[in-house]
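This is your field. Please look over both lines of this record.
***
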Amino acid sequence: MNLSFQEKSIWSVLVSLLVVFGFYFYLISVAAMTPSQGLGLFIFAVVALVVMLAILHIGIALCNIRSATQDGDERDTLIELQAIRISSTVLAVGALLSASMWMTDTTPLNMANAILLSLVVSEIVQCVVQLVYYRRGF
């Protein structure tokens, strides 16, 4: 399968999000944590995500120097805008559901994690939609 630089970049974001935040949400769900422990784990996850993305993108750019220096064309912009439109809807629904947790007797840490989950899911949806549009044509 011959992937463009943009597709490889999207795959790296998708895999990084799934690995880092999959691990984060797994640990949050199985371990009883204090807010300070949860904050420490969150900071670790963000740093790990940034490092992983930097390494992957540097590797992709080094392997595709010519296409890495080119700007995206109109098709790339349209695909990105369509994916953002869909992922924004997912984020809005997730944020509303997270905000409605105040009616239950949940902790602020759980509400914050629900909002974070909404953000991560919307980013995953954006990546998946972009990959689908690149593969099937837009």
Observations:
- Helices lie at 5-30, 35-63, 65-68, 74-99, 108-136.
- The two ends are 18 Å apart (CA to CA).
- The longest helix spans residues 35-63.
